[in-house]
Predict the structure.
Amino acid sequence: MNTPNNQLHGVTLEAIVTRLQAYYGWEQLAQRIDINCFISDPSIKSSLKFLRKTPWARAQVEELYLATKF
């Protein structure tokens, strides 16, 4: 069975956030994952800073990335 970490091997958090933002936009992203870095004055830089310090939020972002059919 593949774990999320195996499926994400070699994919940076920055690449994940950038691709999700390009696909969904900040508003849709905030609706799907209710975290302030996607709601209040969102940017890739601020999102990365928050997600690197917040494992539960990062896990939700990674799960959405894996579930999204780009």
In short: The chain is about 75% helix and 0% strand. The mean pLDDT is 93. The two ends are 22 Å apart (CA to CA). Residues 24 and 30 are 9 Å apart (CA to CA).
